[in-house]
Amino acid sequence: MESTLDDPFPGGFFLYQTGSLCFRSIHLLIQLTETTDTPLLFYIVNGLILTSLLLMSALISGSEVAFFSLSPDEVARCKTSSDFAEQRLVSLLDHPKRLLATILIINNLVNVAFVTLSTFVSWEIVGSKTTEGAVVAILTFVVTFAIVFFGEVVPKVYANQNNLYFAKKVSLFLKGADYVFRPLSWVLLNLSYFIEKRVVKRGYNISVDELNHALEITGNSSSEEEKGILKGIVNFGTLSVRQVMRSRLDITAFDIDSDFHELMDRINKSGYSRVPVYRETIDKIEGVLYIKDLLPFLENEETFEWQTLLRPGFFIPDSKKIDSLLKDFQDKRVHMAIVVDEYGGTSGLITLEDIIEEIVGEINDEFDDDDIAYNKLDENTYIFEGKTSLNDFCKIANVDPVIFEDIKGESESLGGLLLEMYSKLPRAGEKVTYDRFVFTVVSVDTRRIKRVRIFIKEVSENLS
C-alpha cells in the first residue's frame, strides 16, 4: 500500500504497517489467552490503546520534521494564504521554541505511556511481575523496535517528503496541545534560558579543511553553484591580498605628465572607471583618477590640468587578509587599493570586485576579455598563462592550495612557482614534476614564464 499526497490522513504507509503489527499482536494475544484466565477483552482493549499510542508517537515525531523542514518560501506562501490550516501552521511557527517544547513533551509522555502499558500487559501474559530474564529482553527488543521504526523512522521519512501536507494535517492537534501544555513548556523554556546564561559556551575548533570536507559530502540539497559560494565563504578569511591581487605587470595606470587628449584616448581604450596615476614609475603612485570626475570637462583643451582631479590612493600591505580589506572598503567608501611591498614599491592592485569574486565566482562586464585565461586540453591537462595566480589555478583544477605551501615561497602565481622550483628562468620545453603535477614550460621570454602546461596525474596513478 502506497501513501500519496491525496491520503485522507498523513502517513498511510506506516499506518498500514502499524495496523498490521497490531492485528498480528492481537491474534497472538488471543492464542495466549487460551491458556490463561485473563479475559480476552483485556487484551483487545490494551492492544487498541497500544496501537493508538504508537500512532500518536508517529504523528508527533513526523510533525517535528514537517514543521522545521519547511522552506522560507513555503512559510511565506502560507502567510498570504486564506487556508485556516496554513494560518494555524504559521501561528505555531511564530514561536518555534515553544512549538518544539510542546512536541517533545507530548512525544515523551506518549512513549512513556507505551512502555508502561506494554510492560503491564507482558506481566499479565506471563503471569508474574518479573524484571529479569528472557521476558524483559524480548519486551525491550519489541518495544524499542516499535517505537524507533514505526514511531520515529518511518513517519519522519514520510514527513520530510511531504512536509507541508503533514504539517497542515497535524496543525489543529498541535494548536490545542500548545494551549494545554503551555504552562509546562513555559517552565522548560525559562529553565533552559537560565542554564544557557550561566553555562560557559564552548567553542568548536573546526578547521577550514574540515568545513570544506563537510561541503564535499553534502547531498543533493545544494547545487554546485551553492557549494561554490559556500566554499568561497569558508575560505574567505584565510586568503591574503597577495593571493587575490592583480600583479603590477597587469595594472593599467596613467602617467601624470600625459596631456588631456592623450589621457582621454587611453581612457577610451582601457574601459576602467578608476585608474591609478603614477609619476616616472609605477612604484610612485600619485593618486587615483575617477573617470566620472572628468565628465564635466570632456570638451576642454589638451592643456586642461586634469591632475587636480586626482583622489588620494588607498595603500595596503600584501599580507593583509581580504576579509579585513572588505571592511576597510566599507568604512572608507573606496573600491580600489594599491598593494605595496615592504620597501614601499607597488606590488599590485586589488578592487572590491576582486574580493567579491572570491565568493560568487567570476564577474564579467562588457569591457572584460572574452578569451579564456586557460585551455583545458583533456580531463587532466591544462594550459595556463604564467601570470595566473595559484589560487585561481587551484579553483579551476579543483585541487587543494595547501599542496604548494612548502615550495611556493613568496610566489603567488604559476610562473613564480616554477621559478621557485627551477631556481632560474627555464627554457621552453623544460619539465618539472611535483607531487602529482607535471609542469611543462610552453613559452618564455627574457624576463618571465608566459605559458605553462600542467598535467595532473590521477590519484591511483600517482600512488602506483
The helix content is 40-55%
Task: State the distance separating the first and last CA atoms.
Answer: 52 Å
Q: What is the N-to-C order of secondary-structure elements (H for helix, E for strand)?
A: HHHHHHHHHHHEEHEEEHEEHEEHHEEEH
**Oligomeric status:** single chain
* Mean pLDDT across all amino acids: 78
Q: Which stretches are poorly predicted, pLDDT < 50 over at least 5 residues?
A: 1-15, 32-36
How would you sum up this structure, described in words?
The protein has 464 residues and is an alpha+beta fold. The protein folds into 4 domains: 12-198, no CATH class; 205-236; 241-360, CBS-domain, CATH 3.10.580.10; 374-463, Uridine Diphospho-n-acetylenolpyruvylglucosamine Reductase, domain 3 (2-Layer Sandwich). Helices cover 52% and strands 13% of the residues. It contains 17 helices and 12 strands. It has helices at residues 12-33, 40-68, 72-79, 84-93, 96-126, 134-161, 163-180, 182-198, 208-216, 224-236, 241-244, 260-270, 322-332, 352-360, 390-397, 414-422, 459-463, and strands at residues 246-247, 254-255, 274-279, 281-290, 315-317, 336-340, 346-351, 374-376, 381-385, 431-434, 437-444, 449-456. The strands form 3 sheets. It has a 5-stranded antiparallel beta sheet with strand order 8-9-12-11-10, with helices on one face. Helix 12 (260-270) links the parallel strand 2 and strand 3 (274-279). The two termini are 52 Å apart.
Blueprint (SSEs and pairs):
Blueprint: H1 12-33, H2 40-68, H3 72-79, H4 84-93, H5 96-126, H6 134-161, H7 163-180, H8 182-198, H9 208-216, H10 224-236, H11 241-244, E1 246-247, E2 254-255, H12 260-270, E3 274-279, E4 281-290, E5 315-317, H13 322-332, E6 336-340, E7 346-351, H14 352-360, E8 374-376, E9 381-385, H15 390-397, H16 414-422, E10 431-434, E11 437-444, E12 449-456, H17 459-463
Parallel strand pairs: 2-3, 5-6
Antiparallel strand pairs: 1-7, 3-4, 6-7, 8-9, 9-12, 10-11, 11-12
Helix pairs in contact: 1-2, 2-5, 2-6, 2-7, 4-7, 5-6, 5-8, 6-7, 9-10
